[in-house]
Amino acid sequence: MIAFGFPPEGNAGAYRPLRFVRRLASFGWNSTVVTAAPGQYERFDPTLLERIPRETEVIRVNSQDLWQRFQSWRARGGAGGASQNQPISHGLGSTGSQPTFRGTLRDLVRQAEARWYHPDMASPWINRAVDAVTRVCRRERVSVIWATAGPVSAFYVAQRASRKNNVPYVLDFRDSWTITHNDFEARRPAWAIRRDRNNMFDLLHQAQAVIFRYDREAECYWQAYRGALDASKIYIVPNGYEAPIEAVAAPKGDRCTLLYAGVVSDYRYDTFLDALAGLKRADPSRAQQLRVLFIGEGMSALAKAAEKVGVSEIVHIAGAKRSDEVATLQRDAHALLVFGRPASKPGYELFAGAKLFGYLKTGRPIIGILPDDETQRVLRQVGSRTIADVESVPEICELLCSLIDHWAEGTLSSLAPDRKACEGYSSERQTAILVRALEGVPAEQPFIPGVQSVPPSLRGLLGDQRWLEGITPPAAYASQAE
Q1: Closest CA to 256 of 218, 294, 288, 213
Q2: Rounded to whole angstroms, how far apart are CA atoms 18 and 5?
Q3: Which CATH number does the domain housing residue 222 bear?
Q4: What's this model's pTM, rounded to 2 decimal places?
Q5: What is the pLDDT of residues 333-386, one digit of tens each?
Q6: In the 8-state DSSP scheme, what is residue 9?
Q7: How far apart are the first and last CA of the chain?
Q8: Which range marks the domain in which residue 263 is found?
């Protein structure tokens, strides 16, 4: 298993391989994990190490070059040092407002990084990870190499290790690399983007199996890389959750607590705050019954926005918490909150954050302030009725009023998603699909091209002849595509 992010890394991407490695043994598979040893963790959570099976070997390889080690040193405060559990920082300076010179300098550095590192900032680990996989293949009978991305450099490790050791590989997409918006890729020159797309064609075509999170995501790749994929090699494995769905117990408290757990900087929360302000003006007594708790990194902008619209007494903010602390807060909350990505970013419709699936096992109502995206699709699939259009402040306000009323009446359980439907996202079910991909056995629910449509924000991109002209697959593949 090739997973750049793995415990004690506690970011959202580390949970997917952790869930799989914990369940694969029950399906008769033994796993060895090759992961990165970063200079600094994005979200250090040592408690996750206890969840790795004792029989699982974890090989950690250096993931940085001299420049990145210098950047990590700067992020830790230089010679003064800092603990490993502080969030990692990229580029120059903080993410707040900066003088023009520093902002320009930081942008120039990132432009240079986008031209130097290929295919992504994690590229320094590729050769070291390939060597680590090769050492395992020489002493063990390895059946298959599975790689999860982002970063997409994990796919390059899988392909190169596969060629070197004559072992098939399986690709697992956690991000829609080359298709959806990516700040790093947006800074890359045209020649680098063309190379990325050609390499992606090659990666897809040579894989034993390719795993996508949703049918719409698979359809996008099917159309973008025509001829690279065989429909029988495509498997759909969304994110999921581990452990049974928790028994629903009514939390205590004299206010209805709505919890958001995770980063907010990439999400649309402006209309939610506007709705809180509108509720406070229209019905102050009802607004006083609501408490919205945000936990995670990057909350300063949200705090300022809440203060600006006058809802600071409703919105409460705390820093990042360990996974066990987050689980406790979720159990203590009356409902859970989820947002969507801004519509300005191409491919926003393909997004459903990992937090959503952790929410599913709590048995709590999930309040979705969303565009028409995969998060909304999942919530509707599990029978959730607590969804409001992110563009409609009145609709959001009405939803909040309904939440408060159900809390006051003691009927919140009626707003919770359907328990049986949520079980479809359990780690056991997801691992069962993964095993079929590892064994090369066709999926029980096969992907059928053309059933799903490409999301509106990507139709112009994937239908643009320039996209197709940018991909020049090897001649052996081109004849198949025709």
Answers
A1: 288
A2: 10
A3: 3.40.50
A4: 0.87
A5: 999 999 999 988 888 999 998 889 989 989 899 999 999 999 999 999 999 999
A6: B
A7: 34
A8: 256-425
